[in-house]
Each structure stands twice: as structure tokens, then as C-alpha cells.
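Thread: Modeling a multi-component assembly for a lab meeting

Hi all, long-time lurker, first post. My supervisor asked me to bring a structural picture of a complex we are working on to next week's group meeting, and I have zero experience with this. I have the sequence lines for every component (551 residues in total). Could someone generate the structure of the whole assembly? Inputs are pasted exactly as I received them:
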Amino acid sequence: MKKAADLHREAMSLADEAFVAKTKGESDRASSLLLRAFQKEREAASLLESDLTLEPTRSVLYRSAASLAIECEKPREAERLVAFALSGDPPDEIADELRDLLEQVQFHRHLELRGLALEPFELQLSLTGNVIGSNLALSDEFGQRVTNLRTALRRTAERKMEYPYREAGRSKLEKDFEVYVSTPRPGSFAISFRIGRTAQLSIPGMDVRRAVIDEVVECFNLFEQAQSEELKRRIPDPSYFRSFVGLARRIAPDGEKIQTVGFTTIREGEERRVVMKTPRDEIPSAVVTEPPETTPGKRVQVRGTLRFADARSEAKQVIRLVDEKGKSHKIEVRPGMMSDIVRPMWDYEVRVSGTKIRGGILLDTIDPIED
Amino acid sequence: MGANRPELNLSDLEKKILGISRARSAMMVETACVCLEDQKHSSGVAMKVDGDFDAAFTLSWNAASDAMRRAWADSQEATEEGACGIAALIIPELTEYKIVERARKGPHFDYWLGPKEGDPGILFQNKARLEISGIRCGQEKEIKARVKQKKKQVRLSTVPLPGFAAIVEFSQPLSRLVKA
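Re: Modeling a multi-component assembly
Sure thing. I ran the full set together rather than chain by chain. Output:
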């Protein structure tokens, strides 16, 4: 038993190191550490394989090993470990947690295309979570992700076409950028997006539709890996950058209703998969907030209803939040956020985080309050 | 001292209650004293515990020194650590657990709880999770919001064992202890 405890401790230390490496953007090192953590935890669990009386330790260790297997993208290993845990006599609550984990394993199957041919200008979106069932999804959670993904695709197309960021007004691609959405795949909640073919979306020597899909998927990957510097190198225009990060936060899982958001594409016959697992509230602040040196000041948070928006000046756009005491808070919106991020929340009760500035707050993030 | 309220002496944290080191326990004692005195309380103050529990205690401690106040001048750090001290005292009084181990960074809670009597147990046998948060001086709305946030945080943990969240507010003083 002591050996299992020691192995578990080593596994958790390695998982901690992997977490730190990930936040530093060292994704290869993080993956290697996570793999070692998984191997140690699996070994710890296997020492208790035949000790069916040692509950809940046996099932918790197996669950922990299975969870690490999923993080290492070893769904078959995870499935096997969950099966070992359930084959014992886990307490009811832990058995439920193990079944939830099995659903996450199933998610990797939903990411697989299973014979479906995706064109280069298509992208499959897969969701799992407490509000996602087989062929059914809570419409709000599904709908806002479809809308925000469509916006991210359109903004990326505009950026690829080297159009300046558009704070308001119609896009030059308004009529030429069509996104089609398929019906859900049987037995899962996965749908595909297709960018339609138009003459406008054309640059000699470049398949723009394919380039847009590749770019969006890679940017989601960098966002999930918290590689903000690399993401900034890909999206150097600050307005486009803020728009993408704001949309990615809305698409990201909340950790309960939606637990994973996956993207699958096909390139040269190989499937490429990117999975967003980090809950929205746990995304490192370095990814979603402006560096402190650019906006020194105290970080603050206020709640209220979004009642007023003034977007007459592109350089200085303002919204007002009215809190439950009727007090109005002036919020300055940075370029790139009003149209895609703030406007859809008009008249909602929201939580705003930002930096205290003279006369108000400079917006970093805004989220609807979902009580 | 309150006639009908059990007394909790912060100094006991260093002597017998915890399953962690005396040095760490001493930090909890110092910070809890500094936070309570900062809110103008003296040893013998009454503290209510509500949430999923209903209790009241008399808190006693030795006066904080200037050196302690200088050591814990970072208000946020002192409030969080001091809240751990108060939570560590009330948990064994109201549950079958005591603090036995600091949790690592990832799992969404602060401390492992183990049986308050006897051996702390191996791995996950008879263990529970505890998340603690401190508020130096806050209103009911802030306490409620913090409880909600911390309960959610404990539920996100990947370790499916019993969980508690303790929010300690120093100005009243009040502890809200809930099952997560």
C-alpha cells in the first residue's frame, strides 16, 4: 500500500509540473510530464487491482489514472481503467463520476469522423457536457457557440484577406461568406461547418476557405494551450486579437454544462483534432487580459445590467452597467470587442472584469450571469 | 467568555489539532490573530458558524505582537491564511474530520481532511476535501457569492470524495461552513 501511495504522490508532483509547464507555454514538456504522471498513476492503481475491499481508494486511483489518460489523449487506456474501477465495488457517487468520465472517453469517439468525408473547407464541432445528450443539446449553449464560431470564421476570413478590422458596418464579405451547418451526427453531438465557395474569397495561390479553417483551428489550439505570445504573433492586429480571444472564451467550456469542445479537420488524409477542456473561468489571465504594463491600475469586477452603449467613436467606445442598487458604472470598451463580444449581451445581467481607470473601468472580460 | 459557548483557543492549532507541521499551524495562528485584532476584536469574542451547520464558539488567543503584524502586512495573504486557521479549528468540532494534508495546486481545493481520531489513513480512505476562503470585512452578499464560487470550485475537483467549503469573515466574525 505504501508503494501505491508513493507512486500516487510522484504522479501528482509530475502533474503539477505539467500544469506549470503548460502555463509557461512549454507544451512539449507539459505533454511529456503528463505522460509520466499517467504511467505512475496507472501503476499505483494496478497495485490495488485485486483489492476490491479498499474503497474508495481503489476506484479514486483508477479514476485519477483514467482522467490523466484522457489528458494524454489515450482514450482506449482511459476506457480500460474506468472499466477496472467499475468492475470493483465503488461507492455510488464515485461510480457516477466514473460513468461521467466514460462519457468524456466517448467524446474522443465523437471527434473521430467515422467514415464521414470532411472536405478541406469543412470543420467538425463536437460538444460534451451535462446539457448534451445523444442528438440533443441545450439550445442556448449550442446556439451561442454556433454563432460565435461563425463570427470567428468570418473575422478570420477578413483578416486573411488583409481587410482592416471593422468595428461596425457591413463586412465586405457580407454576401460572399456563407457558412453552412450540418445536422448532428448520429449518436453524438457533432456537427460540421462548411464555408461556401465564392469569387470574393479568392487570393491567387491560396485556398482561402482551407486557410481560414486551418487558421481558426490552430488559434483555438494556441488559446487552449495558453500560448498567448504565439497567438499574438499569429494575430498581430490588437483588435482582431481581442475579438478572437473574446469569441474563444465564449466558445470554451464552462466546466459543467459544457465540459469539452472539440474541432476536427482533415488534412492530407489525416484527422487533426483540437480539444478545448479548460473551463472559461480557469483560462490563465495572461491569455484574456491586457498586460499590466499597458494598463496599470487596480483590477476590479462589477455586476449589473448592460443598458447603454455608445459606439460613435471607434477609438473610445463606452457602455454603462446599472447595478442592483441603480448605480451606473461607465465601462470603456477596447477596440475589437464591442461588435462581437459586448453587443450580443445587450440588456443581459453581466459580470465585467477590467482595470480601474479615471472615470470608470477599462474592459477586459464580460460574461452573462447565468443564475 | 460566553457562558454557553464552547471555547476555541487558536493556540490549540499548534498543539494538537492538525495533522500538518507546527510551523504551518503557527502561521495560521498568527494570521488569524492579526486579522481578528485588525477588526478590533479581543480574545473572548463570539463567532457564529452557519451554513449547513449551526453553532457558536468563543474564540480566544494570545495578543498579536508588532512583529506578527509586520510579518502579515499583506492583507490578502493574511486573510486567506487566517481563514485557514479558523476553519482548521471548527472542522473537528462540527465534523468527523480534521486537516491532515495541504492539497497540491491542481485539484480545486485547499486541504485534505482525514479522521480526527487515530491514524490519518492511507491514500483516500476516510478522506474529504476542504476549500477555504477569507474575507477581512464583507457584507452578506459577498459571503453568499464567495460560498457559491467555492462550492462550484470544489465540485470541479476530479477527486470524488466528500467536500466542504468554509468562508471566514473576520469583521463579525462569522464562519459559513457548507457541504460542497
